[in-house]
Inverse folding.
């Protein structure tokens, strides 16, 4: 059950990031963005010495990470 909730939240965070970055696509793109964003965000903020302790801070980290992933995707697509 926790895995399903985690995937659903990842899709939501990916959707939010895609709306912020004006990226449209299918539902699985949002899921992948959210999952990659969570990993990238935690890595980046961990390197800076920050840690996320609540669901709100985790959401912010995931959305920022997903925005970074979208920027990388756009750069590599060109």
């Amino acid at each position: 059950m926790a895995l399903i909730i985690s995937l659903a939240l990842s899709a939501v965070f990916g959707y939010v990031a895609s709306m912020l970055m004006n990226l449209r696509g299918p539902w699985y793109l949002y899921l992948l963005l959210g999952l990659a964003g969570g990993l990238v965000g935690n890595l980046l903020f961990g390197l800076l010495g920050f840690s996320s302790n609540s669901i709100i801070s985790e959401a912010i980290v995931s959305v920022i990470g997903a925005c970074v992933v979208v920027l990388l995707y756009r750069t590599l697509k060109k």
Remarks:
- The chain has a mean pLDDT of 82.
